[in-house]
Design a protein that fits this description.
Strand order of the largest sheet: 1-6-7-5
Number of helices: 6
Radius of gyration: 20 Å
CATH class of the largest domain: Mainly Alpha
Structural class: alpha+beta
Helix content: 25-40%
CATH architecture of the largest domain: Orthogonal Bundle
CATH topology of the largest domain: Helicase, Ruva Protein, domain 3
Distance between the termini: 30 Å
Order of helices and strands: HEHEEEEEEEHHHHEE
């Protein structure tokens, strides 16, 4: 599943290519996950100009100048493809056709992609929001006898962090993913807060450097610990794999356990 850094890059590239263009046609192939009837979606968006594409948590928001927004959650296997002449994508959920022959197809062989017209405002802050600081995490960890990784991935707590980047953040902060949240001392919570911003921002830069035009997929070859095929980190620490909340979790013995 694409996480915050991936989606940050996707939104940048989609906006660069499509911003200011009129949407000519919406072609919905699979409407099962759409929150409104197809006719309401087409009425709201067709003929309107795309104002911007932004990331919100794990969603992409296509914002139009008539104050309508199409939210897209790619879920586990959703992909975005440029519409190209003589190329027909498989497993299409919907297509957006813009003026000038430009457009995208959103696909998913599991049909899990969730398109939403005018998504409800999010209650939890985005992981890059300035309010997600040391005090924020202290508050969220207080009286929580929960593995810290589960809290990092909880989209009702903070939006945008998934399995891979939770591992990377905790590795950077030197905290075991199995640590009990309310047992983590204040100085380490401060380190965690800094690692959240550092890891996510650095990852976006790495993705842009190696895949500057990417609009789909996951770039993971620069990660330090969430490396399924790697036995050790660059400094020689053995990488272990276990599960938390049924998710594969990668960590090292150098990360301190607080329990």
């Amino acid at each position: 599943m694409p996480e915050l850094p991936d989606l940050q890059v996707f939104s940048r590239n989609l906006s660069h290519a499509l911003k200011g263009l009129k949407l000519i046609k919406v072609n919905v192939v699979q409407s099962r996950k759409l929150n409104v009837p197809v006719k309401d979606l087409t009425k709201a968006l067709e003929g309107e100009v795309l104002e911007d594409v932004i990331r919100s948590g794990k969603q992409l928001h296509f914002k139009f100048t008539n104050n309508q927004t199409l939210g897209v959650h790619l879920m586990l296997h959703g992909e975005i493809h440029w519409l190209e002449e003589n190329t027909k994508q498989k497993f299409v959920i919907f297509e957006l056709h813009f003026e000038g022959g430009k457009g995208i197809a959103v696909t998913d062989f599991q049909r899990g992609v969730m398109p939403t017209l005018n998504p409800d405002p999010a209650e939890a802050p985005d992981a890059l929001d300035k309010t997600v600081n040391t005090n924020f995490w202290k508050t969220k960890f207080k009286a929580r006898r929960t593995a810290v990784k589960k809290i990092l991935m909880d989209q009702d707590v903070v939006r945008g962090i998934g399995n891979a980047y939770a591992d990377e953040i905790l590795y950077d902060a030197g905290i075991s993913p199995f640590s009990v949240a309310d047992k983590i001392p204040d100085d380490r919570v401060e380190a965690l807060a800094k690692s959240v911003k550092k890891v996510l921002v650095d990852a976006e830069k790495q993705i842009l450097k190696s895949n500057p035009s990417i609009i789909s997929g996951e770039v993971r070859d620069f990660l330090k610990v969430h490396r399924p095929k790697q036995a050790a980190t660059s400094d020689g620490a053995a990488i272990h794999m276990d599960t938390i909340a049924s998710r594969k979790t990668y960590y090292t013995d150098k990360q301190q356990l607080f329990d």
